[in-house]
Amino acid sequence: ALPGHLLRGLLPLLTVFRLERAEGAARRAGLSTQPIWRKLWDDVMKTRPPNSENITCWRKKFLETFFSNVLHGVLDISSDWRLNDHHFSPLLHSSPHVSQLTLCNMLQGAVELAAEHNQKVLENLAGSLRILKFQHLLSSDQSIRRSLVLLLHRLIHHGSVSQVSMYSWPVPDTVLLVLILSMSAGFWRSGNALVYHSSPCGLCREEDKAQSQESAQERAETGPRDERERSDGGNQKGTPRAPEETNAEVNGCGADARLNSVLSGLRNPPLRNQACNEASSKVPCDHTSFQGGSSPRYLSDQLSCNPVLRKTRRRLKSAVGKKRRCLRQRRGSYADPEDLYDFVFTVAREGNSGLLDKNSTTEGENAENWTSSSPGSPCTGHAGCKKRGGSAGIFSLKAARRFRSVSTLELFSIPLTGETCRTLSNLLSSWVSLENLVLSYNGLGANIFCILSGLRALSRHSDCHLRVVRVSDVFSHMPCMELVHCILSAFPQLHTLSVSFDLKNQLEGNRPEGNPSCSEAEIPESCLEQLEIRFPREPLHTAFLLPVLKASKSLQQLSLDSATLPSSQELGLLLEALRECNPNLKKLSFHDVNLAEHQKEVLLLLQDPVLQEVTFSFCRLFESSTTEFLSEIINTVKRNSSLKSLKLPGNRLGNHRLVALADIFSEDSSSSLCQLDVSSNCIKPNGLLEFTKKLEGHIQQRGGQIQFTHLRLFQNWLDQDAETAQEALRRLKAVCSVVNDSWDSSQAFADYISVM
């Protein structure tokens, strides 16, 4: 109720707690609290946040970082009077503003958040958190893993987390890694086996209660008459009763109870993300792995497709009833600590074709029929994905219940063993909610075939949502273009595909038996909009790229990195193919591709009337060029009104070529160029100042009408004359946005000698 001028003077004097409560009043009075939150950041955090120019809400940025720092014990709230308010609960009051959170090291943050006194904090995070990151994890004990289970169950299965990312884990703990992967995919035991604050998860209990009520209502509507008719019909057919069914009746559970138990299981929600489209289609008979994540509604179809599985229908129904009776008896009791391992681990008995759960001996032969060696499972011991007897960490979905899953999975610098790859493959095979998959520097090697197997199984689901795939590693185990063919032929609905390798594996070509080449696979018409390929110094053969370009009529961005051109005609063939096959191409990028002898093709690219962004990064453009070539580039860009961005980093422009580029904006130019990148080009302060003066002259001649808005100057030699550099930057910033850095040019002395 305070007048605006009084509120304006009061806001900077408030504690964080009071400032947060006054946000609504300030907004109604037309006052912005952003400068106050920015000052709080500078005073409390004492660091410059990355990409600060892109921060739109300093309130959210401060409170989100504040939450993380308090959680990890790196910020003392008594250090600033604005934080020290007895009404202020740091984690509780800042948690609604947290959209991404990083847990690291020994997962101390997970233990704190899973504590009972932070239950309200966890509820807030379940509604606000979207991105969960794990970084530099270490091995953990059982109690820490239990806390992590509670956290993931609440934030993913019953929360809003849509992205899980893991970074820099040189020696991953298999137990912990499999646990995070499986729960991210939505798999875990039934809620009544999961202890949450000394009791079964309340949300799971409510869902089970709702499902039970729905099942009871359906049974009431169906009536006992229909059940008797079905029972009589079954007996008339002379179907023998399995021993397990007889035992169930002896134990006090009659035919009605047994049937209801089975029906209840079949009425469970489908094994897919709740956010996904509920429209379903039948699973093909060639992929009938129940453990791979098929929906219970598909169960009868799967059994009818497979004669071996059809024989075990009776035993399955008995096992389902037995398992549900056991769970009913255990309801309300504490979960045994070993329960946390039973679902994650399976142990392969030597000589067995199946991977059995630790508790599978209590299930008898029924367990053997539903393990990861089921027919149609994505990765079951074929060449390139071989099983080893006695291996641990292989994920079994036999007893799983499917919860909500994340849509983005990112694994950066985490070595994946064969066991972990088989686990990930099985998870991927039914992860229909997955939209973005990033596997970066995981040391896959031959295990890439195992991952591809899981992806191919996933592609058979009509409700698959995968749209972005990024795979990068040090060594390639198969040619880049072959991998592109494999992925794109299975997923024509992809929007973005990125394949990147540093070095070529010397054993490439010696592929495991059973993994034929994909290079000849037919690629259907695709939705691909962005394609990025980093070749491990492989020759760029347009003939291999041509089928991809022809199938990708919607392609808008193409990036080719570290390719070698086997002949002088190859680049011309590529440009011709792009013009014919990809009329919508807007961005074209070459990085570390030697274009010194391809001046004609470079000029043709800059003349393209459709391209809006062209990048020649470290392409040695001017290594053997003449002055005429630079003039032709400038004149070509001046005549091209469609080109918006020209990026020339690492091409040894030097001072004189930079000054010449200012003529792109001369009075007679029809260029619409907005962005120019001249990073890493041996530019000195005096050259930058001369470029600035020439640019100012052209702007004055054009009456101030110029579209140039961004100039990038990273890693140039501006530290050699700080005063001149500051003057040039000051004058440039009056014309456009300048992005540069403080770089020590002494590191580039060798490059300096080469251009003198």
UniProtKB/TrEMBL annotation:
Residue ranges with Basic and acidic residues bias: 207-232
Cross-referenced InterPro entries: Leu_rpt_41 (IPR026137), LRR_dom_sf (IPR032675)
Source superkingdom: Eukaryota
GO cellular component entries: cytoplasm; nucleus
Bias-annotated ranges (Polar residues): 358-377
KW Phosphoprotein (keyword) present: yes
Keyword Repeat recorded: yes
Leader sequence residues: 1-22
Region named Disordered: 207-251, 275-295, 355-382
Protein name per its UniProtKB record: Leucine-rich repeat-containing protein 41
Organism: Mesembrinibis cayennensis
Gene that this polypeptide is encoded by: Lrrc41
